[in-house]
Amino acid sequence: MPYDLIELFFFAYRDFVGDPDRILADYGFGRAHHRVLHFVQRRPGMTIAELLDILQITKQSLNRVLKELVETGFVEQRPGTRDKRQRKLHATEAGRELAIRLAELQARRIGRALEAAGPETAPIITRYLAGLIDPAARRSVMAHLAGST
């Protein structure tokens, strides 16, 4: 058993999300809010169905979090241009600022780790992390990443 790697992964995840957690707590938000805000900010105009597919959560869970983000002015919903029943999600200016602030914290942590490992290890680390994703979802995740540049 690779217990050392399992434990390192737990500790790395704890610290990776810990920096944003402290900021999110000031708003009364949690990790679910962070994930929604991150993807809405990265993909302006995505639909609720697309977000549900990415997050792999129930519609009920998303509705609660999304309602809070909309009510507090971090996300807005706009009707689709072709189908007015469709709701397109956009981060507001405040939402973009918060999402970027959180991403910068995590980017610095990743940057320090890559610097320590050697920047040439990034493709190896990418393949390793992709290998941790369920094979049924891996292709769509990698396609999402390719479209996010």
UniProtKB/TrEMBL annotation:
Supply the Pfam families for this chain: MarR_2 (PF12802)
What organism, scientifically named, is this protein from? Bosea rubneri
Domain HTH marR-type, first and last residues per copy = 2-134
**Keyword Transcription regulation (UniProt):** yes
**What Gene3D superfamilies does the entry give?**
Winged helix-like DNA-binding domain superfamily/Winged helix DNA-binding domain
Q: Which UniProt keywords apply?
A: DNA-binding, Transcription, Transcription regulation
Q: InterPro entries, from UniProt?
A: HTH_MarR-typ, MarR/SlyA-like, Tscrpt_reg_MarR-type_CS, WH-like_DNA-bd_sf, WH_DNA-bd_sf
Against SMART domains, the record matches this protein to: HTH_MARR
What protein am I looking at? MarR family transcriptional regulator
Q: Which residues cross the membrane?
A: none
| Superkingdom classification of source | Bacteria
